[in-house]
Every structure is written in C-alpha cells, then in structure tokens.
Amino acid sequence: MKLFKTILMSLCVLLTFSSCAGESAKHEKEREAMTNPSAAEKQDAENGQTDGTAARGKLLYMGHASIRITTPEQKVIYIDPYAGKGYEPAADLILVTHDHYDHTALDRIADRTADCRIITWKEALVKGKHQTFDLGYATVEAVEAGYNRNHNVKSCVGYIITLSDGVSVYVTGDTSKTKQMPALSEKHIDYAFYCCDGVYNMDLAEAAECARLVGAKHDIPYHVIPAKGQYFDRKRAEKFDSANLLVVDEGEEIELQ
Q1: Which one of 5, 56, 156, 210 has the minimum C-beta count within 10 Å?
Q2: Pair 23, 120 in one domain
Q3: 78-108 confidence digits (pLDDT tens)
Q4: pTM, to two decimals
Q5: 244: domain CATH number?
Q6: Rounded CA separation 30/34 (Å)
Q7: Is residue 185 within 8 Å of 211, Cβ to Cβ?
Q8: Which domain holds residue 19?
C-alpha cells in the first residue's frame, strides 16, 4: 500500500513538472515573438508603419510645378524646385525638367543626403534618346516635353516616376501635346500632372485632351497660371475637364495608392 502511494505521488509530481515546463516554454515563445519581430514587421517599423499595413508613398504639391515625393522607404524626391514650402527633408533625388528659372531653384534644397542624385534634362535626354534610371527605391523614365514656342522638345523632358510598390506619377513638365502621349496609356499611370497655364504652355482644353490620351487614374492640373508671385489658382484648376480630375491644393499632401 505504501509502495502504491509512493508511486502515485511520484506521478503527480512528474505531471505537475511537465505542465509547468510546458507553460514556461509557451511563455518563452510569446516573449520571443514580442521581442524579435519578423523581417516584414521590422521593415514596416523602419518605414514608420506600426499597424502591420504596408507603408505608402506620399506626395506634397508645393505650388506651380514644384513637387515633393516621399517613397515607402522614406526616400525624398524633389521635382522642379521653386515654389512653396516643404524643402526641409534631405533630398535623395532631385529631378529638373528644363532650364527655366521657375523650375531650377536648387538652392532651395539646402539638405541633401551624401548620395543625393540630381537628374536634369541634360542627363535625361542624351543624343535625342530619353533615358531611364533605376534607383532601387524608384524608377525614373524621361519622356517627351516641349512642342511649343517656349519649350523645345530637344531640351525639355517630363518624367514618369514609378515607386517600389508600383505606384506611378507622371509630371509633364512644361509642354504642349506630344507625339508620345498616346503610347503612355499602355503604362497605366496612377497620377498624372498636366501643366495648363495657357500662356507659356497648353491651355486647359489641350491639357484635358492630353489627359484623355494618357488615361491615368487621376488627372491633376498644375502650373495652372504663370509664375508671377502666385503659384496656384484653384478655381481655374477646377475647370480642368476630366472625369478623373483630382485637384490638389498648394501645400496639400496626399497619400499615393
């Protein structure tokens, strides 16, 4: 009888120990998961995402033809610096469409990363051929611009910037309708900016025609008036005749998706 009680007590002790060891291992795994996030979670944290969703790029319209894009990796791209506010973040890439003063105020970008790259129309258009630049966090494709008395197609470009998540942004630069625009519909562009001041470039009607040719998901009017102390006119922008019209105010930042 005593032997039976001894065996029974030993079994109880063994079961209790096993249960405690199992709970301990479970808690250890939970602590490990909390203190050692997955690679995806680490990337999200680096990109400023803490809710498990993928990081998105952002676009700040600074006025006139000036734009700032922040990629999902937090790389900063400035396009045609000149107008507005928002030049504080250090530049990783600066794009310039042509040599007019209202597109080339590079001195406004005081902070630049050590490997900041500047791509102007000179690098983007070599011996009559439009260049493409793969930067890892974005691909930049130069396209035609010009075709009016103020802008020569040989010394002006537009850009299609495609971010690492596939979102694409087309900036026409200063231009009228180009021969290349119908072919751009095959690229399924997400956001397209069209100049439409009607003085130095095409007017609202021609810009709307260009928008129909390109067929982007969102058509955004910019460079809507000449740069003479004023950099945006919302009432004029709202007259842009497009079913996909997206009016972005001067100083407004949107999420790219």
Answers
A1: 5
A2: no
A3: 999 999 999 999 999 999 999 999 999 999 9
A4: 0.81
A5: 3.60.15.10
A6: 6
A7: no
A8: 2-36
Token pair recorded at residue 124: 């983007």
The answer as to whether 50 is a domain residue is no
In this structure, are 19 and 83 located in the same domain?
no
Query: How much is the CA Rg of the chain, to the nearest whole Å?
Result: 27
- Please give the structure tokens belonging to residue 38: 């997955």
CA dist., res. 98 & res. 121, Å (int) = 6
Q: Do residues 73 and 193 share a domain?
A: yes
Query: Are 150 and 29 in a shared domain?
Result: no
214 lies in some domain: yes
Closest CA to 181 of 210, 208, 160: 210
CA quadruple 199, 240, 84, 162: dihedral sign: negative
Tally of CB atoms within 10 A around 152: 12
Name the burial class of residue 112, with classes exposed (0-12), middle (13-18) and buried (19+) by CB atoms within 10 angstroms of its CB.
middle
Q: How far apart are CA 118 and CA 174, in angstroms?
A: 19
